[in-house]
Amino acid sequence: MADKQKIPLTTEIGSSGLTWYRPGYVREEFLPELVGRRAIEVYTQMGSNDPIVAAMLFVVKMLFRSVNWYVEKADDTPEDVAAEEFLKSCMDDMQNSWHSLMAEVASMVQYGHAPFEIVYKRRRGWQDDYTVSSKFDDGYVGWAKISIRSQNTVLYWDFDDGGNLRGMWQLAPPFYQTVFIPYEKMLLFRTESSKGNPEGRSILRPAYRPWFIRKTLEDIRNIGVERGVAGIPRFWLPPEIAAPDPSSPNYAAAVATRDIWIDVGKHIRQDAQACIIMPLAYDDRGNKLYDMDLLTTAGAAAGITEI
Description:
Blueprint: E1 20-21, E2 25-26, H1 36-49, H2 51-66, H3 78-91, H4 98-105, H5 107-111, E3 113-122, E4 141-148, E5 154-159, E6 165-172, E7 177-182, E8 186-190, H6 208-226, E9 232-236, H7 239-242, H8 251-266, E10 291-295, H9 298-302
Antiparallel strand pairs: 1-2, 3-4, 3-8, 5-6, 6-7, 9-10
Helix pairs in contact: 1-2, 2-4
């Protein structure tokens, strides 16, 4: 066996094991519907439509806003006292308040991560441009704002060959221009930092499966209730209407008539305006040319209406 090559102690040899693909797509999640922007859409839907999830996220956000933040100096030296006062002044001299910032930080609970961009300004007192205006006129560099970069605008992350995060690429409305935000200008809040994953892990992830099952069953139930839990509408149409011949001179009219019946079937609901108008038309033998009934289902027959 060949001798092992001597490697300096300061050289990084291994990696965290984070699964990512170039240019910077993280693939730690095994469910395709919970990867990247699709995951953000799912967690947004959970937080917007589910009353329990929405209430929980609201409580978390209010807890973040209610926390009292303070700065504690390291020592009583003049330098440390000055540093304490300067940091306090920076926190109180931004476009958005510190409590509003914390409310935005709370979004990491829902999505697993919350990226921010630090925007600096020179403190030169009051300015006509409010974005650079300051309460102080000392010439120091402070924070203009620490602004959220919405999770659904993250295009992909930027890693070096060692898997270290160098920043993120963003594609956001209203201009939809691809921009790079370097790590030095970022604040990245995460629920957890397993393998150095910049996307963290949403606390809603374990609830996804039961939420999805309940949502699917509720949709089926609600459709059934709207249709009177009776079944699927079935229309009996003449052959020249149900399957018109493209070579027939009446083909366009037949297709239009068929589309009308399809539209009627899609919008049948058991409500105050439920109504179907059937044409009174018979063939040479006295049979109805048009008719309608409902195909019942096992669920409807069993009276399954509760989830």
